[in-house]
Amino acid sequence: MTMFLDSRSVPEPLDSILLAAFEFDIHQVIKDCSIALNNWWFVAHLTDLLDHCKLLQSHNLHFGSNLREFLLLEYASGLFTHHSLWQLAVDYFDHCPEFGRVYLELQIERVPLDTERKALKVLRICEQRQMSEQGSI
Fold first, then answer.
1. 121 exposed, middle or buried (CB, 10 Å; 0-12, 13-18, 19+)?
2. How confident is the model at residue 48, as a pLDDT?
3. Are residue 124 and residue 62 in the same domain, yes or no?
4. Can you give the pLDDT at residue 5?
5. Is there a single domain that holds both residue 101 and residue 73?
6. Does 55 share its domain with 114?
7. Residues 77, 15: Cα–Cα separation, whole Å
8. Rounded CA separation 67/38 (Å)
9. What would the 3-class secondary structure string for 56-122 be?
10. How many domains does the chain divide into?
11. Can you give the pLDDT of all 137 residues of the chain as single tens digits?
12. Do 67 and 89 reside in the same domain of the chain?
């Protein structure tokens, strides 16, 4: 790997990710992936997987929660802005024990209720999670 990188003046982003992975620098892999890749899907799921394997315990950062939850919340927030993926975001928020409910409460209030069907979906989500204030809006 060193010989390959020496032949280039600046390593490609994927080369940096591989190098960090070979060095088992998990935090650097996550950081490089978040910079190099064009969406948060991979980073959020990689972090979630590493957390479940107990490999991120020493990598909790000061985002108000751990790195796993922070990245899942960011990914879910992005999904919530998409007209057909917002319901999927609800499941991601449900898997964030510290701040997931707060994020969901804030996001659910912003769903445009342009059809009766969509309004009923929002109402059902609120009822299932005992979000009476958001369900009454």
1. middle
2. 93
3. yes
4. 58
5. yes
6. yes
7. 29
8. 19
9. CHHHCCCCCCCHHHHHHHHHHHHHHCCCCCHHHHHHHHHCCCCCHHHHHHHHHCCCCCCCHHHHHHH
10. 2
11. 666 656 666 778 888 898 899 899 998 999 999 999 988 999 999 999 998 998 876 555 555 568 899 999 999 999 998 988 999 999 999 999 999 999 999 999 888 888 999 999 999 999 999 997 775 65
12. yes
Verify that 49 and 13 share a domain, yes or no.
Answer: no
Q: The domain containing residue 17 runs over which residues?
A: 1-38
Judge if 24 and 56 occupy the same domain.
Answer: no
CA nearest 113: which of 89, 137, 85? 137
Tell which residue, 55, 52, 15, 8, has the closest CA to residue 35.
15
Same domain, 60 and 1: no
Residues 17, 50 share a domain: no
How many residues comprise the chain? 137
Angle at 71 between CA 56 and CA 62, to 5 degrees: 65
The predicted structure's pLDDT at residue 35: 92
